[in-house]
Automatic annotation (TrEMBL):
UniProt keyword Oxidoreductase present: no
Gene Ontology MF term list: ATP hydrolysis activity; DNA binding; protein serine/threonine kinase activity
Protein name: Non-specific serine/threonine protein kinase
Classification of source organism: Bacteria, Bacillati, Actinomycetota, Actinomycetes, Streptosporangiales
Protein source organism: Nonomuraea polychroma
Keywords, comma-separated and alphabetical: Kinase, Serine/threonine-protein kinase, Transferase
CDD domains the record matches: LuxR_C_like (cd06170)
InterPro entries cross-referenced by the UniProt entry: HTH_77, NB-ARC, P-loop_NTPase, Sig_transdc_resp-reg_C-effctor, TPR-like_helical_dom_sf, Tscrpt_reg_LuxR_C, WH-like_DNA-bd_sf
Amino acid sequence: MGLDTTTRVSELEQIMTMAAPKISSGLPAELNTFVGRRHEVAEVKRLLSEGRLVTLVGVGGVGKSRLALRVGSDLRRAFHDGVWLVELAPLESPELLVPAILERLEIQDRSIRPPIEVLVDHLRDKQMLVLLDNCEHLLDECAAMVETLMRSAPQLRILATSRQALGVAGERTMPVPTMSVPDADGAAPSAEAMGRSDAVRLFSERAKAVLPGFEVTDANRDTVAWICRRLDGMPLAIELAVVRLRAISVEQLLARLDDRFRLLTTGARTALPRQQTLRALIDWSYALCTEHERLLWSRLSVFSGGLDLEAAEQVCAGDGIASDEVIDLVNGLVDKSVLAREEYQTGVRYRLLETIRQYGRERLRSSGEEAELKARHRDWYQDLATRSGQAWYGPDQVDWFIRLRAEHDNLRTAMDYCLTTPGQAENGLVIATALRFYWIAAGALREGRSWLDRLLAAEPAPTATRARALLVNARLAVLQSDFEVAAAMLEQCKELGRRHDDMVVLAGTAYVCGLAALIQRDPAGAVELLGEALETHRAAGDQMGAVNTLMYLATAHSLLGHDEQAAALYKECLTMCEAQCEHWFRSYTLWVFGIETWKQGDTAQAVEMEREAIRLKQPFDDRLGIALCMEALAWMAADDAGERAAVLLGAAQENWRSFGGPLFGYLSAFHDTAVAVAREHLGEQAFDAAFHKGTELSPAEALAYAMGRAAPRAKQPRDNSSPLTRREREIAALVAQGMSNKEIASSLVIAQRTAEAHVEHILSKLGFTSRTQIAAWVAGQDPCGGPS
């Protein structure tokens, strides 16, 4: 096959079929009001201004996660590269820690480097706040990773939540207390004392959601105060208790808490009272559920990261729960605040809070049903993965991609079960193999290879299942330019394909070999191998394999200058995709066919093809594919619209940074030519200015510009038109808003003395003597980049 192990650049399918992780705002929206915690929020901000790693510690249910989210939300504007939440609770394997962060930060790892190196390279110059939520079960791994990041990324700050400190040098820890409760001094609390209590305020806010019109009055004030005291001001405990007001009064609620807590006197004497209280409250919530609701609660604990109704019906029904009962039981658990209901792109999903999930798992384990439910869970997600693989080439492709995204944690859990349960590795290979296009579309090449490597090692039998798993693994390796490893796996694929007379494996082997040849700039060899693959795919009736192969075969012919043959193959590929209402292969075919059309002189048609490709890619959040189309649009603009080309090239450079570097091999000639032509048309200074303008565009602005919908605007004064640095301009804007140095320090998470120094520098650079003059100067600046 002639795989060149020294070649480092992956083109074609690496470029054409990888997609970015799901684009996110970085933090989830708050589903209800945030109550109290003013002192704690201020203290966390102060700690972050003094140190780069702050860990919120406390027991489960005390509100660590919600406090971190509130601080992160308040500080969005202080971090140029954003505030990002990484939820670690669904991760059961330490190996997934860094890949999960790469995914959440929208970093596409195409290399075979250690994931931590990729993460460090991306964060090295980022001004970012990362929230690591629920570190306790991966404590050692989190500590090692955080220490590496702290040393390598000087502008990075991390806010972690954990039940214990990470133990990293420079870490500042803040124990998160329970909410303040009214003093128990024997007298009825005053209205003023009640108003000062965060626990009472939370109780009142949540009670109003359960009982519209609820108020803390003179008649119930003492009872509410005692409830909050009995719950030790534990936020989760209050949330769980308030839901009972749908059925009982506050007086009845207090009475039942008293009854329940008396049972704690025989509990573990070494446990903290708050831990006892929380456990007791969940025990009580469990006791208030019907027998079938309790059973469903425990069974739902096998899911990771949420589930939909269909999954609950398939996995949890039977042995005491009829399938048609599940929806009513789910509603009951939602009403009792055991299950959280969440709106998702594909419909409603449900999630157990981690503390409640762990409680349910204990109940499931004690019932003796855990092994059976974990097997049912695996069976369901194996079936889901298999159906997704079969349906990928069709009209429901986007829906399947979104669904697999939502189920990623459950798929991981299912494969982990297969690895850790004797005799189940082959089922794991079925799942990992069925996800072949998901691994590519989600940009999860490394993770897909990791699962396949471990499962193949656990199941060495020379079965047809192994052959297909090896083929997917080899394909992912080629996409990472790991050609030597791919070559060894492809030899095994050939042997097993012949042994089992498996035409799909044989066709796929020829296809991956042809892809490797194409990536390594051997288009003649690629034509031969891909031609063989196409013939075998068609003989096997594998239309999806034929479409995938046609796209690359056409590209190989294009590289050889066989323009008519390439165009005919592209058109055939598009016709097949359109007949199936398929988006993924069609979008990438339009991208490369657009380049071929432009080469043949029809620039207007080529531009429309690239924009149509972008429209098809958007439902997948395919940032890489969109970036490639934007780059092609820049080439197409170079001859006649040099400034437009330069702006798009600048925007593309920012995209490549998020993917770990340039993505060009044979395409680099087009890029270099476009840069040279645009420079010649504009001149050095104008080209550099337009290019810089492109680097400042947000992804949404760059996309709108590429689609011809808007002209780009600079968002800040240029460095060459202002004596101030970007940070100083930011602080000047806050001064203009009337903020004091203390308020600026809090807003930007810097020390007050640092804010004072910045203001002094601003006054000195501008020759001013007062903050009023700074405000007037800011008002006189043109938002497009210079003095008005």
